[in-house]
Amino acid sequence: MEFLSGVKPQTTLELKELQEESRLGSRVRVNGAVHSIRDMGEVAFVVLRKRGGILQCVLEEESSSVSVKTVREGQTVEAEGILERDERAPYGIELRVQEMRILSEPCKGMPLPVGKWKLNTSLEAKLNYRNASLRNIRERAKFRIQEGITRGFRDYLYGQGFTEIHTPKIGAKGAEGGSNIFKLDYFHRPAVLAQSPQLYKQMMVGVFDRVFETGPVFRAEKHNTKRHLNEYTSLDFEMGYIQSFEDIMAMETGFLQYMLQLLKEEYADELRILNLTLPKADRIPMVRFDRAKELVAEKYKRAIRNPFDLEPEEEHLIGTYFKEEYDADFVFVTHYPSKKRPFYAMDDPQDPRFTLSFDLLFRGLEITTGGQRIHDPKMLREKMEARDMGEEGLEQYLGAFEYGMPPHGGLGIGLERLTMMLVGEDNVRETTLFPRDLSRLEP
Amino acid sequence: MEFLSGVKPQTTLELKELQEESRLGSRVRVNGAVHSIRDMGEVAFVVLRKRGGILQCVLEEESSSVSVKTVREGQTVEAEGILERDERAPYGIELRVQEMRILSEPCKGMPLPVGKWKLNTSLEAKLNYRNASLRNIRERAKFRIQEGITRGFRDYLYGQGFTEIHTPKIGAKGAEGGSNIFKLDYFHRPAVLAQSPQLYKQMMVGVFDRVFETGPVFRAEKHNTKRHLNEYTSLDFEMGYIQSFEDIMAMETGFLQYMLQLLKEEYADELRILNLTLPKADRIPMVRFDRAKELVAEKYKRAIRNPFDLEPEEEHLIGTYFKEEYDADFVFVTHYPSKKRPFYAMDDPQDPRFTLSFDLLFRGLEITTGGQRIHDPKMLREKMEARDMGEEGLEQYLGAFEYGMPPHGGLGIGLERLTMMLVGEDNVRETTLFPRDLSRLEP
């Protein structure tokens, strides 16, 4: 009988290993995809794309058994040769190829110049040829940063006593109602796709005290903007036993600090590839909604049109204001009007026209909505009644409060949007592997 | 201006801190939910449910400002008192309460006896009162184990150079075809819910070499068994540059070893609560599909009815066989018949009636399906043609191969099913927070 006892050491080296000083001058074996070829006649430079970055390979007619004529972009290969220092090459190393074996062949040329450093192509073309465009080193790097954000979110919250949950995406009723719900047929019963894990994560506060989920959410919104998707990844948490809704913002601040540090340490290659400077999150200012509107109105000579609404232009100016006045990239705007928040939001006992809630703006764009929730079943029912909401489909949700629930609150972060802002893109589709919008259902 | 600079130290202690030797005899503050009450007259034992477990509190009429008459199951409270050793109490500690403040009140009694150690209730009742039943310590612990599995999967794969991806759950076409697809209306266009991230993760091998995803998948299967759900969490990975399909099984073996170790180290409390002994995964036997059938037929005197199919009963016996003969909890069954595998499965060049694929059985139940995939675009088209498949909706998928793709393969693990087997349950609904099946769309 044969047995498996785990991963065997690889016979090929990855970029991290190739950068070890001791490898220089020795014979090494690597694999990768042919990313670009520069044929200079007697010598050719073949760049291999590996998962960690790119490796420059040199093929010389006389010292190699391989002819550059057989090498084509898109092939995957295994190459052997001597590793040498070359300060002009990426990571200061290059492989002088002696042997090369072709692992697989493409049957078409690349539809986009993915081997170039910057893929100067329209977003439309990038999305139409998604599995080609993402092979560009810079395009790919954005999604490594996205990984770092998600990873940082989870790791930080594990450390803070949160439990990860998986809540259903198909349900009988939307979490927050409204018209932006995708409907489907579930064995001849009407069903909907989850707009958010909101009601489930609140229920689970009664079980685990602190919970989080990283998963897809679905919004059937008909507007086609640079900031909206119809399916996106939401980083959600909810925490019990809070003293005030500041605890939630403090937890998010802690996450941002942890995540930015993780990116610096573990994603340094990608930060360099994208030439990114990370924002600061050591001190995040906190300003009331109404006060933020006043500050912006005063400084930028702008009339306040509606005291209970924040226009995108105003949001943007709040970002500008706090950058100019406090050198802050992030700002918490607190106490949003009750009318603009869902039924489960806790009203401010000082002034119930406003809520104990917040948005986090990052360079003037909302990337988080959060706040304290109502935990008292009577108060919850009163607010639902005041909004003419029925209880149908919410029996289990209400049950959680009837059986007792601690004071709690939480938030949701749009992953693709946070990635977009962090890598300096201006369209959320740039930081979504396969975006879903009004016109895109494929690939 | 006010600023937030991260999480402030909590004024209340968690169970880990309460177990520190130096806390004994000192005054501490804790919070929690009233889990059960045993009123003995002059003294009452109030068990608090905290996220890490339970804490025994003692209320004595004379030394406490709190009357036990005001304490009710389901309240959430903040208590202060002196921490004492008591070997009979959980963790060997108890809190002698001096003051207690009520944070929130329930308005109904618990519908199930969740304060008992074992919740001896029907599965039906547990699911009907999900937000109550999960408050039982043992019910809750299963989902902490589930967290450990997912966490172990991700952490192990990060360490092995995998990139985490998020692929869309709404698409134009199902990954593997068939009738078990949920359909929905996407802005007046027909759309479906993803049965698996299969085609996307394969495409992403061409970009990141190694990828994984942990997310929901949707199966509109009409059978109602103890092992099936219509929505579940799939742990998926796909890896490029494999030498053989054994590499995939070796990676899974490495994951299982890492995950079991993580559970031992970080989830020891939950293992104790559930009284679990973890299985061994240091050496996992590997047996061909046809050979496994023979072994079982010989040993258990069972005729082979169909050489190209594995019945659940046979699967179960394979598990028994390898437990008896090799003391193995896991077994890889390899070389499944081509007819039983999807179009993208790589046929065995030695005998194309079989594939370079495998299932992992855990105590006789399939918890993983995986294998090598076709990476040559011509071979892929030929197999699709042989199966009378059209290319519509698969253009982008085929494109990835046309632009070049390394030899690769991967697998998918059903999270709820693996949890079920690990914690020794016999119905997958026991290890699903909110199961979705033919009859359950709520809560």
- The amount of helix of chain A comes to 25-40%
Strand portion of chain A:
25-35%
Q: Which ranges of chain A are low-confidence, i.e. pLDDT below 50, for 5 or more consecutive residues? A: none
**Average pLDDT taken over every residue of chain A:** 95
Most residues in contact: chain pair: A-B, 125 and 125 residues
Gyration radius of chain A, in Å: 26 Å
How many helices of chain A in DSSP terms? 12
Number of strand segments of chain A: 17
How would you characterize this protein structure?
2 copies of one chain form a homodimer. With 443 residues, the first copy, chain A, is an alpha+beta fold. The first copy, chain A, is built from 12 helices and 17 strands. In chain A, the strands form 3 sheets. In chain A, strands 7-11-12-17-16-15-14-13 form an 8-stranded mixed beta sheet, with helices on both faces. In chain A, strands 2-3-4-6-5 form a 5-stranded mixed β-barrel. In chain A, strands 8-10-9 form a 3-stranded antiparallel beta sheet, with no helix packed on it. In chain A, α4 (137-159) packs across α6 (246-266), α4 packs across α12 and α8 packs across α9 (312-326). The two termini of chain A are 44 Å apart. In chain A, 51% of the residues are buried. The model of chain A has no long low-confidence stretch (mean pLDDT 95). Chains A and B meet through β1, β2, α3, α4 and β7 of A and β1, β2, α3, α4 and β7 of B. β13 of chain A pairs antiparallel with β1 of chain B.
